[in-house]
Amino acid sequence: MINIAIDGPSGAGKSTIAKAVAKKKGYIYVDTGALYRSIGLYVCRKGIAKEDKEGIKATLPEIFLELGYVEGVQRVYLNGEDVSGDIRLPEISMYASAVSAIPEVRAFLLDLQRDMAKKHDVIMDGRDIGTVILPDATVKIFMTASNEGRAKRRYKELLEKGVDTSYEEVLSDMIKRDKADSSREIAPAVPAEDAIFFDNTEFGIEESVDEIIRIIDEAIVGRG
Ligand code: DC
Questions:
Q1: pLDDT by residue (tens digit) across 53-91?
Q2: Which member of 40, 81, 117, 189 lies 3.0 to 4.6 Å from 181 by CB, making a disulfide possible if both were Cys?
């Protein structure tokens, strides 16, 4: 199987670029952040505080997650409910980051992610795909862009969805979340030793997609 790992901070364009690459190459795109977001949503709906690690752990046996694909687009089902829209709210981003620092939550999601990669050619995006989930991935890419560039993209996306926020708020939430994700003890969002760096601050989407496909094709040829 071809397994492409894409890691990097929020708003670096991972999902937009990975989705387009998946379409062109015939891979399945797996957005692993959606899984942490779904747990975050469940916990938030139950009124459990982000800081309440024991409370969060206690909810895990109540949670059943599934990934599905509708016309090639990933949907995530939380106990049978399609929550793909609800998990995108900014408040849920902070919940997702908080639950993702709990080892039991990460262990809970491990098999689901690895099973996808065992059964399909995948391009999987997240924070620890190259370091923990798929250490033998065909190619590992660490995608970044400047803080301002990332915040601008996120702000635009949220405005398009009708979310009431400001650029300053998006930037400060993003920096806070990235700091938490990259400094946590378990599976911090850091590049794998053998990852290829790709900073797309100066690149458009099309150019980024072409560059990633070039990196993948080169790695597949190199692997023989
Ligand atoms: O990619 P995203 O913004 O949808 O992810 C939401 C949060 O989930 C992010 O702040 C950190 C966490 N996450 C993680 O810890 N590991 C992953 N593989 C994917 C996401």
A1: 999 999 999 999 999 999 889 999 999 999 999 999 989
A2: 189
Testing ligand 1's pocket by substitution, the residue of 100, 116, 184 carrying the most ligand atoms inside 8 A of its CB is 100
Residue 43 is which amino acid?
A: V
In what order do the strands lie in the sheet containing 196-199? 28-31, 122-126, 3-7, 139-144, 196-199
What is d(CA 164, CA 162) in angstroms, rounded to the nearest whole number? 6
Q: How many A from CA of 26 to the centre of ligand 1?
A: 24
Closest of 161, 178, 179, 6 to residue 84, by C-alpha: 161
pTM for the predicted model, two decimal places: 0.95
Q: Which of 123, 130, 149, 126 shows the shortest CA–CA distance to 204? A: 149
Q: Residue holding tokens 């809970």?
A: 108
73-78 β-sheet, strand order: 65-70, 73-78, 81-82
